[in-house]
Design goal:
Blueprint lengths: L7 H4 L2 H12 L2 E4 L2 E4 L17 E2 L8 H13 L9 H11 L17 H14 L7 H10 L17 H14 L10 H12 L18 H11 L8 H10 L17 H13 L19 E2 L4 E2 H10 L8
Parallel strand pairs: 1-3
Antiparallel strand pairs: 1-2, 4-5
Helix pairs in contact: 3-5, 3-12, 5-7, 6-7, 7-9, 9-11
Length: 320
Amino acid sequence: MLDILGVLDSKVKESEREDWREWIWSQQISGEQGAGFRPGPSTAIGGIIGNESPNPASHCDQPHLVMTYTALISLSILHDDFGKLDRDGILRCLRAAQKEDGSFTPTPGWGESDVRLVYCAFIISSLLNDWSGFDVPRAIDFVRRCRSYEGGYGQTPGNEAQGGSTYCCIASLALASSTYPEARLSEADKEKSIRWLTQRQTGGFQGRTEKTQDACYSFWCGAALSILGAGDFVDRKENSQFLAACQFKFGGIAKFPDETPDPFHSYLSLASLSIYPPDVHEESEDKESWVLPKLDPLVNARVETAQWAREHIPRKGPVA
């Protein structure tokens, strides 16, 4: 959140940022089924083994796809050089986490599997600039089978279309499309998805048909429309007014007006406003408070952060 507000350097000392980098690297673990990052030391038997990276994995302490994506973005925000990154191990982890139907589990061979994990696998591969870790066509087929008749996507095949899963699917297909042409949407499918997404705006955005608008879907649906090149269909004024109404008087943004704020909805609301800043009158006293750094909707990070990630995460030199 500090990154998207553009205040990380001014609000956090370099010594603190270095402590954060070291802590994140201490969560990199490696085992027989690959490497990646765990949520934190609480999953380690006996706690953190040391400051070396990667630490050895165990049966109860496995690399996690969501945490690996989170770590890569967090380290990019902190301008790490990724000299400690076990790239080959991450590719092995992706391979071990893919199921026969093309989906992924969060840790190798264990846990729920849906399009959220597919997005994590795709964005990790995109940032590594290496798609050799898993069967990409099989994963693309899984995403396609999650598509509903309405043009949105469910979390698994046959499920109701939902804003978050629709973002994950559209972003995944877009990430893979430059390398795998079969990931590209047809014009008819693209138009149907745009229609479904634009119908979710009722001021803010709702996540499903006939549901209440919720601040997080301003990002999920709005970012998906941006990826599809249909951002002009978003009513920026209505979106910003709803998110402003979700602000808490002591800071933070809630999912609904008059609710308790939380980091999840606060960040995604800011991410939406970064993509769709409202038109604020030049003489307005709060004009500057609406100005946020531009966001890369595919990576879900500030454009500068996404650029750092793409420059520093890939292996240097040709892929073996």
